[in-house]
Amino acid sequence: YTEAWDADKKSIHVMPDTPTILLAKANAANVSHKLYVQAWEEAKKKGYDMRADAIPIRSAKASRDIASDYKYKETHEKEKGHYIGCRNAQEDPKLSWAARAMVLQNDRIYRKAYHDSKAQVHIPVDAMSVQAAKECQTLVSDIDYRQYLHQWTCLPDQNDVIHARKAYDLQSDNVYKSDLEWLRGIGWLTEGSVDVVKAKKAQELLNERLYRTRPDEMKFTSITDAPDVVQAKINALQMSDVSF
Questions:
Q1: Is the pLDDT of residue 244 over 70?
Q2: Residue 175 falls within a domain, yes or no?
């Protein structure tokens, strides 16, 4: 089926100078990488002669020196420490102003005069403030407030010593509670205590079973022919579903 078509494809001839063929060749030349770098490859094969004093080389060196940070700061480093018009740092107004500002901002220098003079205070011993301070110290002093009595030596059988011992024994808490020492460690049952009895009485008062008597526990006899009983029977008979 395709044999005739394959034979016709081989027999078709297109003229090489047709616009379509020329356009295709021009596009192929434009997108060809080989043709794009052909001039560069031929120039590399011919070699080159570039002297050190060539204009492009000198231009590149000048651009490098301008962009170099070292060359940029070389003049500043050379001029550092050289002052024009001032023989020393004190004659330079900017340096003098900076030194003055540093002195004003320095806290140590600001307080130097105070620290030098704070220990050199001369106060007369008879000044009013000093006398008042001494009197105040005497009033608040614990040593002058308490004057301990002489430690007298008394005989143990003197009447005042015996009386003092009796008074101490009466006021002593240990002697006062000595009769309760035998109770220490003995067990005790709470049954019969005041709190337990009070709790039981309160429970009996709050017990509803003892407070109220149930109706079914009360013994009474109802009269069968009483008017209210007869009326209740009639009402129950009228409302009964079974009788209805």
A1: no
A2: no
